[in-house]
């Protein structure tokens, strides 16, 4: 069994970093399951690799073992996460590893899922397989931060994104694009990496956004569109309304307009009715629990000023991307960002104040 005295070689670290790269490649694309990378090595030669399938199955270890064209007897398997030992929709990967005659298993971090948590080492030892954990654990923890958050909180991992001018304005009729084409590509990469995206009906009706991923070849990975639309004010000529199909759109509302409800349902839009608070607003924490319950695990919030303010005020962001333009818009702009965002930027510059920010992860991108 693994102990704190386990020694790892440079080769072990090299192969684990390859497994990490495979896991990162599937980050945000594996549904409810964690993204895992697996590398199988024999006589210092890589004989197979695997990663978690899209939507979460098959698992990485299964893919690596089943695609291997050589004998696995005596090989070493590197996995970014502890191999599963429980029966779910598919049999446990640990059983397949044992059956394949693999000699050694090295993984980075323990799976937080209680059905598997810290059980594989005992199982492998019982089957005379050498097993070690904790290789490059610090990096492994970074990769699985969203997955651990999902499991511990039963909430989606929330990434915020906002573009501001040099003088902190977020909107201008004369200059629709505040930041440059490179920031725009990062925005679409974020949409690719998140399974859902949230805006308010105010942003929807004002900007008529598409909320899809427009990176070449990745359109099919566009996130589920989620709209906070208390009065069901979505415009019928909006892009979101016209392209709603197969429940790719969810509307949270508090309306009794039966005619509008029936129309939206016919368009394939999923409607979730929620009560409002004394300020006539949704409780965002309840909204997030509902979003988690419909299978969303990584949520991107591309709201305007008010929605962003609400998330900041309630400390709901795990990660925040602040796109900062070199242009000033004071003579052109509207909606100067709030003190909440100023405080967020201040916290970034003063690390000691980051404890009150949920994710301790603020990314400034200058355009």
Shape: elongated
Largest sheet: 8 strands, parallel
Spell the H/E element sequence.
Answer: HEEHEHEHEHHEEHEHEHEHEHEHEEHE
Oligomeric organization of the protein chains: single chain
Low-confidence stretches: 346-360
- What is the C-alpha radius of gyration, as a whole number of Å? 23 Å
DSSP, total strands: 15
Side by side, the strands of the main sheet go 11-10-9-8-12-6-13-15
Strand pairing plus helix content: what structural class? alpha/beta
Number of helical segments with 4 or more residues: 13
Residue share in β-strands: 15-25%
Share of helical residues: 25-40%
Mean pLDDT, all residues: 88
Terminal-residue CA separation: 51 Å
Write the layout of secondary structure elements.
Layout lengths: L9 H16 L11 E6 L2 E7 L8 H8 L8 E6 L11 H7 L4 E6 L10 H7 L3 E3 L4 H7 L1 H9 L3 E8 L4 E4 L8 H13 L2 E5 H7 L16 E5 L10 H4 L6 E5 L4 H9 L3 E4 L10 H10 L4 E4 L3 H9 L5 E6 L8 E4 L2 H11 L12 E5 L1
Parallel strand pairs: 3-4, 4-5, 6-12, 6-13, 8-9, 8-12, 9-10, 10-11, 13-15
Antiparallel strand pairs: 1-2, 1-3, 7-14
Describe this structure in words.
With about 375 residues, this protein is of the alpha/beta class. The protein contains 13 helices and 15 strands. The protein has helices spanning about 10-25, 60-65, 95-100, 120-125, 135-145, 145-155, 180-195, 200-205, 240, 260-265, 285-295, 305-315, 340-350, and strands at about 35-40, 45-50, 75-80, 105-110, 130, 155-165, 170, 195-200, 225-230, 250-255, 270-275, 300, 320-325, 335, 360-365. Strands 11-10-9-8-12-6-13-15 form an eight-stranded parallel beta sheet, sandwiched between helices. Strands 2-1-3-4-5 form a five-stranded mixed beta sheet, with helices on both faces. Strands 7-14 form a two-stranded antiparallel sheet. Mean pLDDT is about 90; it is low at about 345-360.
